[in-house]
Structures are given as structure tokens and as C-alpha cells.
Amino acid sequence: MFVGDLAAPHLDEADHHHLTRSRRLLQGDPLTISDGAGRWRPAQLTGDGVEPAGDVVAVARSSPLIVIAFAPVKGDRPEWAVQKLTEAGVDRILVFAASRSVVRWEGPRAARQRQRLAKVAREAAMQSRRSWLPEIGMLGGFAEAAALSGAVLADQGGAPPTLDAHTVLIGPEGGWAPEELAHGLPTMGLGAHQLRAETAAVAAGLLLSALRAGLVAPAPGPPPSAPTSPGTTSDEGPAEA
Fold it and tell me: How many Å apart are CA 101 and CA 142, to the nearest integer?
């Protein structure tokens, strides 16, 4: 569970209800609390909250930071993507409006969606026992996303994933527009087949997280390169109706 202060932890009503009703924990049962900024400590449930039961442990943040920025899609698929990206260990999850985006979050709607995605990420981080909460952010258009450090476009036929390109931009259902491809960002491939937008986001997060953890070896070959044709098909492909 995440708390604001590890020295004097407090569980809000929803978290306490989840532990006692959904998880059926009893007074004195052990649990782990974290501040979401890399520190955690053992604790135990009390009648009306939680109390520390061990020393604070600090976990260093992994490097490089992995960033996935995606154009929002319809329905609850953005929530699903954020949940899985959090479980995978992605550090920053950003949303931006691409040229061909059908779904656009602006103004008060963007603030509401960010709050919703942050709640999804928090729940997923508790389930996956992360001590670092991912950052959830809303960007403007493609230019702002393209200016991120280490940014590459997910695009079919791109170079294999590498940690030198640790910020991956995922386009909308309709793929990248010619002017976005002409921006000159390197491209990264995520497999032999076209992927739905939310699947591409999760695939990118999992591949980069596995590379960072040393679970897979980098592929031989050249680093990501700029697209050669403005007509390149997006790695995400069109979404099903």
C-alpha cells in the first residue's frame, strides 16, 4: 500500500476497506507500505490503520528511465495500457494528441483522464509491488512528444529496441501522418505484425524493461534510423471497429 509518510503511515478509507474486506486481512497481519518514491518498509495492519514493523529500505531508481507516450484510443483501452505498463516497470507514461487521433483529451477532460489513469497506475503498482510510482502526464501535440529525450517512433520495419532509444512514441489507430514521419525521428520496430495501439504501447514497455533488467540481450544490428518513406505503415495499425 502507498502512504504519504512512512514514519507515521495513514491508510485512507478506501485502502483500509480493500485490505480488510477484499483481501480479508486481520489485525496484526503483515503488509508492505511505500511512499511511491523508492522507499518502503514492513508494516502490520491495526484495528483502524497500519503501523510500522521494520526499517525503511531505499530502492534506487533504474536507469535509464523508460518513457512510453501514446495517443489515446477509444473505450477503456488507455486504462488497460497504463495498468500493464505500470506492471512492466515503465517510469513515465504520457499521453499526447497525434495528427490522426480520433480521441482527444483537452481542458477539464484531460485533467479528469489524468486523475483516472493515475488511480489505475497506483492500483497496478500496489499489485505488482513497485516502490516507485510511475509518472502519469498529459502532453500537447506531436511536437511536444517528439521533443522528449531519446524519442523514437514505433513503426513497422524500424530497428530493434535498444536502451539508447528509451522513449517510445505510439501513434493512434490510423497510424502516423506523413508530416509526423517527416519529422525525422528514428523508428523502432516491435515485431513482424501490425499491433493495435494499446498493444504496441505495452510491447514497447515490456521490451525495454526486459532489456534494462538484463533478461534479454540487445539485438545485433544498426541503431534506430529515420524513416525512409512518408508512407510507412504504423506499427500500431488500424484498430478493430
Answer: 10
66 burial (CB, 10 Å; 0-12 / 13-18 / 19+) is buried
In this structure, are residues 162 and 224 in contact, taking their beta carbons and an 8 Å threshold? yes
Q: What is the DSSP string of the chain?
A: -B-S-SSS----HHHHHIIIIIS---TT-EEEEE-SBSEEEEEEE-SSSEEE-S--EE-PPPSSPPEEEE---STTHHHHHHHHHHHHT-SEEEEEE-TT-S----HHHHHHHHHHHHHHHHHHHHHTT-SBPPEEEEEEEHHHHHTSTTEEEEEEEEEPP-TTS-EEEE--TT---HHHHTT---EE---SS---HHHHHHHHHHHHHHHHTTSSPPPSSPPPB--S-TTPPBSS-PPP-
What domain count does the chain have?
A: 2
* pTM greater than 0.70: yes
Same domain, 125 and 174: yes
Does residue 75 lie within any of the structural domains?
A: yes
Closest by CA position to 18, among listed 42, 50, 40, 41: 50
76-114, pLDDT tens digit by residue? 999 999 999 999 999 999 999 999 888 888 888 889 999
User: Smallest Cα–Cα separation from 118: which of 146, 78, 74?
Assistant: 78
Question: CA quadruple 145, 80, 166, 156: dihedral positive or negative?
Answer: negative
- Show the domain range for 190: 67-212
